[in-house]
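[job 4471] stage=fold_predict status=RUNNING
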Amino acid sequence: MLLARLLDKAIKADSLGLIDADGDFHRFGPNHPDVIIRLHDKALHRELILTPRLTFGEAYMDGRLTVEGGSVYDALAILSRGTDVYGVLGRVHEWLAPAIRFFEQNNHLHRARRNVAHHYDLSRSLYELFLDRDMQYSCAYFADSGMSLDEAQEAKKRHIAAKLLLKPGHKVLDIGCGWGGMALYLAQKTGAHVTGITLSQEQLAVARERAAQAGLADRIRFELCDYREMKGQFDRIVSVGMFEHVGVPHYGRFFAKVRELLADDGVALLHSIGRSDGPGSTNSWFRKYIFPGGYSPALSEVLPVVEKAGLWATDVEVLRLHYAQTLRHWRDRFVARWDEAAALYDERFCRMWEFYLAGSEIAFRYQGHMVFQVQMAKSVGAVPLTRDYMVHAETALARAVPAETEAA
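[job 4471] inference complete, writing structure tokens
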């Protein structure tokens, strides 16, 4: 069995078992394995070599592949720590992927709306099963390793707000506002007036409902709008977890729009998933089932475009394992409420969602994914000369006192 021979070469430090579709047992690694992958379809012997990333996820969703003695996360972790798991043909497929990514990421207006609807217009009840109480669907900030998910998401909003140097009355644009949590936080904590834009009908409805319930309808406005269609000028611009849906071919237009909308003394903050090992391609299973048109860029693909747009990159921070911890919380919470998710959708959907959360955590823990925050400005003097103001602002926000930080 060619698949078994490839796995035998790949797995050295860990141990893994494989029961193929003929019922034969194969052991890889130095010890007797606790985690065993069982194949229920002989076609997988070939498919896992030809298209390993796509086939593994699809087979798990369909029940053609199961994991015994552990979870699908455990199996993926072992495979990800291997040295040559995907085989020659699988690597050829990955080599070709960057050449066609222009077409995969050509997220024009109609396609962008369709891609967003694919993921974000799922039931609000699904996301409530595993997100924090504020429904933050992006990387949390674990300033303390013992933080709960709710505490870490609050810390994330505080960390971002501190970098924005907000003052009461500032006009803020939130590009990709999700269910409104960031906009609500900024308005409540700093007295800013926030406009949030999204392409998701479901998120728009929830965000507007939350603003009304909070009594902030006079300071927060949510609109169904693409960033390319936005008009006006803003003192601050923030975008959290949206840039992954822009696509490399549109980076120039995105940052040119940020510059156009940003006041001369304004500050912008981009929070995005990235990759530490240079430009790459999106996992084919994730592209098909989770984030069509999505791509996590390397900083080397982003910062040159920021420069060309005429913006200063006034601060860059890389958050390494914060998203791995966030995803661990999400996956644990989702699995604990599996039956409720199955009642909303079905068992196949639950296996898909589990695979998504597990695979995402693997990407951040073992495969070089991270999160970066890039603070930007038009003016060289828009932010203080040292980073001390961030600490002071976070302290003030933690005490529920609006940060009154003067820019140097």
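[job 4471] summary: Confidence is low (pLDDT under 50) at residues 86-90, 402-408.
[job 4471] exit 0
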